[in-house]
């Protein structure tokens, strides 16, 4: 994606040094800061502290983290012990999104194939690059599938703008490039279809107001930021044609965990007969889970995120208390939208209804590989 005319991915390898570079998302949209990650611990902190965030990008970052871990492990008494501790650390950083776990497991399988430590390090580097490239490519492809939904609505509306509501940030900042929920939108925009995006601000961390709005603005896509509680009203007044969100973990039966508040949007969409789609690359499926509400771990985050907001004041980013200091606070990071509220899943292989049979029709190798545990 382009920022002021320059192409950026959200994560990349330093040109000469064994260092990973990332855009530090904590300061967007007000400051554009690039951070260097030297060690697996740097990578762990970057994921935990949300310098990087979003399922796909966390997966790609964890993939690179395993390469740094393999380099560090070479100097340790036991290469294997260090690597397995690093894998555990990276998986623990953000529990709801499945992508970091998926990337770390993929790395462990790949690295095990190396015969020497040097070979293992080389494999880890190549696998990390592959995970990142695949993430970008799969998002690009899912955009090409998702655009058919927008095209159909545009035809029906005879060229009037298609109004799409999205929640949180499932844009290119949440992946290596393109994004999931935004990929069909960017594709439609590129092809000259008129689109307008309602951007939920997404309390408590405001990824919609800060990140999605910044992305769309940079790209020139018409959009309007709304408070989280506005969507239902807009839907009742025919001001939303379509909802597309991302996901952090989707069960093989199609239940989707996404940023807290997504479920309420899905309920409002159903009540108003508005199609609700979830866009995801296949790395976000958790093939072993069936019941998302019962089985997907929901991250509980610090009360500080609810009590304080950050914003620009006199040219400086400032933190402001918005609750009584002593009030107790609960901060659930995600919720699960049951498959029955989802019209379809937009993936790199196509769009399918959110149910086990149709998902496995698109990804039959998951059955054959025996990754799926039957209860
Ligand atoms: O807590 P975050 O910012 O990592 O949350 C992730 C999200 O932005 C959303 O849940 C997103 O829609 C899915 S990640 C592609």
Short description:
With 375 residues, the chain is α/β, with parallel strands linked by helices. It has helices spanning 40-48, 55-73, 79-92, 99-111, 117-156, 183-190, 207-219, 231-236, 262-271, 292-295, 304-307, 356-362, 365-368; strands at 2-3, 6-7, 11-13, 20-23, 34-37, 162-166, 195-200, 223-226, 242-245, 249-251, 256-259, 276-279, 285-286, 308-313, 316-321, 334-337, 344-347, 350-352. The N and C termini lie far apart (43 Å).
Radius of gyration: 20 Å
CATH superfamily of the largest domain: Translation initiation factor eif-2b, domain 2
User: What's the N-to-C terminus distance?
Assistant: 43 Å
The main pleated sheet reads as: 7 strands, mixed
Top CATH class of the largest domain: Alpha Beta
Number of domains: 2
Helix content: 40-55%
Which spans have pLDDT < 50 for at least 5 consecutive residues?
none
| Overall average residue pLDDT | 96
Globally, the shape reads: globular
Give the second-level CATH assignment, the architecture of the largest domain.
Answer: 3-Layer(aba) Sandwich
* Topology-level CATH name of the largest domain: Rossmann fold
Q: Identify the strand order in the major beta sheet.
A: 8-7-6-9-12-17-18
Q: What small-molecule ligands were found?
A: 5-S-methyl-1-O-phosphono-5-thio-D-ribulose
DSSP helix count? 13
What structural category do the secondary elements indicate?
A: alpha/beta
Give an account of the 3D structure.
This protein is α/β, with parallel strands linked by helices. The protein folds into two domains: 2-134, Four Helix Bundle (Hemerythrin (Met), subunit A), CATH 1.20.120; 159-368, Translation initiation factor eif-2b, domain 2 (Rossmann fold). 40% of the residues lie in helices and 19% in strands. The chain has helices at residues 40-48, 55-73, 79-92, 99-111, 117-156, 183-190, 207-219, 231-236, 262-271, 292-295, 304-307, 356-362, 365-368; strands at 2-3, 6-7, 11-13, 20-23, 34-37, 162-166, 195-200, 223-226, 242-245, 249-251, 256-259, 276-279, 285-286, 308-313, 316-321, 334-337, 344-347, 350-352. Strands 8-7-6-9-12-17-18 form a seven-stranded mixed beta sheet, with helices on both faces. β10 and β11 (256-259) form a beta hairpin. The protein starts with a strand and ends in a 7-residue tail after the last helix. The protein binds 5-S-methyl-1-O-phosphono-5-thio-D-ribulose (MRU).
